[in-house]
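=== Structure Prediction Worksheet ===
Name of assembly: unnamed complex
Input type: mixed (protein and possibly other molecules)
Chain count: two
Listed entries:
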Amino acid sequence: MKQVAILGLSYFGSAVLDELLDMDVDILIIDKDREVLDRYRDTVSAAIGMDVINQEALEKTLPKHIDAVVIDMGKNIEASILAASYCNKLGVGTIIAKAETDAHGEILELVGATKVVFPNREAAKRIVPQIVSSLVLNYLPVGGNLVIAEVEIPEFFIGKTVLELDLRKKYGLNLISVRSVDTEYRLFMPDYRFQEKDIALVSGTETDVDRFAGRLEKEQSSKGFINSIKELFNKK
Amino acid sequence: MKQVAILGLSYFGSAVLDELLDMDVDILIIDKDREVLDRYRDTVSAAIGMDVINQEALEKTLPKHIDAVVIDMGKNIEASILAASYCNKLGVGTIIAKAETDAHGEILELVGATKVVFPNREAAKRIVPQIVSSLVLNYLPVGGNLVIAEVEIPEFFIGKTVLELDLRKKYGLNLISVRSVDTEYRLFMPDYRFQEKDIALVSGTETDVDRFAGRLEKEQSSKGFINSIKELFNKK
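=== Predicted Assembly ===
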């Protein structure tokens, strides 16, 4: 069974613990705060009260050959850097650390974190395009200039099948999944016929997704559907 | 131009501001802390020092018909709830609030937040499957039982085209994009031929993705590729 230690149970550490509890792994939690440990003591393999910036204590406490360590010291940036550095010296293979700023993330990488997580920044990247364009509901930058976005389907999609619309060829978009306003995402077949209020999850370059969402928004209100369809189809 | 106000510049609020600065929107920031305001004063339309739990002051300060408000009071949960409630009473259409716990999120929705964001929990959901399975590099729950995951391609993919492998039919997976270890995601054509060390971004049900990643991991080491391919192809 894999062994994972969570050093620090601030918001991210606790969220990781909640997720790990559903999995078949051996969990060790370490925190200075005895109240926090007591809250989780019955659900984990071991709950140890100690300060992770004590290198010797950490070395004695962490099992040899532990598979992964998750570090979240909350606002205590120095402690998270020291903990990542110590775990690196101890030869831990996977060191996941939470960072709040670019500088913090850079230092964590320098001292040996194998993965730095920026929860607040990642959430911001998803939410901001949603504020700016009302047609794009949710937006996730994947890397390069590729994004995954939730898009309300334009009205002329209704009644057409996925195959007929050929989103990839006509708009450069890859259809990942479809849902209705009040249901969850599901697998779909190429003969799926779009229905009123469907929401599509698509991937594509930022430009293609923005153009698709932005253009439709503008043209639907100003020139009506016929022109908007014509323009879109002539685009490529 | 759209008008957006950020109430509170804790980690999430600042990250949203960083993203919004690249966009064509009018930004107003409000915080009690003058030092924080000074840091951003030159980059926004207005920086106002006030306590958002003063309903009258907030009403006087927020422009009428503001498009969206982003609320991040850090650890001050009561302030974020009051701010969301006041914005709701003022008729703000989009109220995005950061929450740390389920209870906090529920209350924010009750008092009128239109979208509640859980950055730490969302990051945890992505990172945990990655700890547990080494073949799945990165993992994003989309809704329902659908997930998007980064997967190292198995060796027998190398040299085959996307069309030949027919991931959708054979594994229930939708290929979103492909990258090499050291490049970023890009658009691909159906005749793309997989190369050594390629990483694929796929979507599918949690079960299909886990089975794909988990099975391959096990069978590659124990029975070699031929059997593993046979088994996978007989699966459906």
